[in-house]
Design a protein that fits this description.
The protein is mostly helical. About 55% of the residues lie in helices and about 10% in strands.
């Protein structure tokens, strides 16, 4: 094994190059988003069982499409479903203090 000695200038140049590379990767990366998710994909995403998804469908809380016996969900509908459970914990905490 051979050792190489680098100068402080070399190290600083490496840091700047690495920082630029990381920023480029972060700026070019896209968050996970599919337009349509299958039943299995949504179960995994929400960490719920198939019976829980069935309950959401039957009660009309979550809209879906059925194609050739398979159930699919639109991403926008999933976002709306999740937003419907959004709560403001600050106002809840203030109400319990009064």
């Amino acid at each position: 094994m051979s050792l190489e000695i680098i100068t402080k200038t070399d190290f600083n140049a490496f840091k700047l190059e690495l920082r630029d590379l990381i920023l480029e990767i972060l700026n070019n990366s896209q968050p996970f988003k599919k337009d349509i998710l299958s039943n299995d994909e949504l179960m995994e995403l929400l960490n719920v069982s198939s019976s829980t998804l069935r309950k959401y469908r039957v009660t009309g809380k979550l809209t879906y499409s059925k194609v050739a016996g398979l159930i699919y969900y639109e991403y926008e509908d999933i976002q709306n479903f999740i937003r419907s459970y959004k709560t403001n914990t600050l106002s809840k905490n203030l109400n319990t203090i009064k």
